[in-house]
Write a structure and sequence with these properties.
The structure is a homodimer of 235-residue chains. Chain A is 43% helix and 11% strand. By secondary structure, chain A is an alpha/beta fold. Chain A has two domains: 7-18 and 103-232, Rossmann fold (3-Layer(aba) Sandwich); 19-101, Putative phosphatase, domain 2 (DNA polymerase, domain 1). The first copy, chain A, starts with 6 loop residues before the first strand and ends with a helix. In chain A, 45% of the residues are buried. Chain A binds chain B through residues 69, 121, 129-131, 133-134, 137-138, 144-147, 151-152, 169-171, and chain B through 69, 121, 129-131, 133-134, 137-138, 144-147, 151-152, 169-171.
Chain lengths: 235, 235
Amino acid sequence: MTVTVKALFFDVFGTLVDFRTSIAREAKAILEPQGFALDWLAFADAWRGQYQGSLEEVRSGRIGFCKLDVLHRRSLDRLLPRFGAEKLGEADRVDLNLAWHRLDAWPDVAPGMKRLKTRYWLAPLSNGNISLQVDLARRNGFPWDAILGAEIAGDYKPKPRVYLAAAEAFDLAPADCMLVAAHTSDLKAAAALGLRTAHVARPNEHGPGKGETAPGLPVDFAAASLEDLAAQLGT
Amino acid sequence: MTVTVKALFFDVFGTLVDFRTSIAREAKAILEPQGFALDWLAFADAWRGQYQGSLEEVRSGRIGFCKLDVLHRRSLDRLLPRFGAEKLGEADRVDLNLAWHRLDAWPDVAPGMKRLKTRYWLAPLSNGNISLQVDLARRNGFPWDAILGAEIAGDYKPKPRVYLAAAEAFDLAPADCMLVAAHTSDLKAAAALGLRTAHVARPNEHGPGKGETAPGLPVDFAAASLEDLAAQLGT
């Protein structure tokens, strides 16, 4: 099928980067030398497990908008005692919190984006803050045209404002934008606002075989990777 | 001298791009085929001449924040009758207004930025809106890490919020950021907030010999070009 959009917006955590094994690796690198022995993947899962609840604090208005880095830190402080690591010092907590700035991309992302960049404006439409996105982009070679998402909208997905603020920043109608994501819930929110949708399968996002292999709603494109999406879009 | 900053913020109009001859060229390309014969450079000067007054409408709070594209359009509509071009149609006005998205960079900018990118985070700290910056970046090869400036701050330079919002977006103290600009007034506002400063001479910004050849206040660096600045910073 043909769609003519000008901009591609990307979900980042899970869709572009493998946060689970990256967080496990970073946690181990910081904690193990200090004698902590955690189940590193379980720790990564538990940290991410706090994610939606922490976003909901902002989305509901119970707390004002703050960067995702701040929410990650609050979750970390809550989590460390549960893993017997309550004695971790402040400097290490700061460093560990920045593990979310050191996530590795799935291998198809950089080559796929390079092709997509030739025809489309590219921006993250993520709940991650601007500085986090810059670190991820520099680490993984994401060629963003601009950093959009939660921080410029002052709210968190799937609140409509976040998607609409991204389109407005690019002077585009929602129908001229496509969200690329590995999560049906994100695509559903975007589609309801008139954005086009592309699903990318990330079957191992939450561990082997634990991720969406196909979209749970009708989408404009369903792709196995960003390179597959680039090919389907003729780039 | 040595300064250790993490981010370089750039003024854009005049500092990176030659708006005067670019706007004259674009105006001529659109208006001349329709029989209009203006003094193209005078038209460019007059349009830019409306700039500070239009920003002041927002800075003073008389009108709410809107993108620079909107302010440029209001100035254009006010200006056309003065140049005998009040009959210009809507589609051409839209196109002409986008001339500000089609400005050419001074020749030292792309090579200088490429060197600076190896060590510093780079972002525009401009009054131009995000979509305008993306167009200029794609046209001229500006390798931005993020688009900062007026649109993310919701106000216009030299209001303090614009400089501080840029530093905050990068999680940096003002002292870890340096503003690169061809205008003493801009550098003065940044320095007052604790940012470091670099002046770039643009002696022909407003016509031959009509531009700042040296800073009108003490700065951390005074450069003849972005390549000169890159060399002074050891990149």
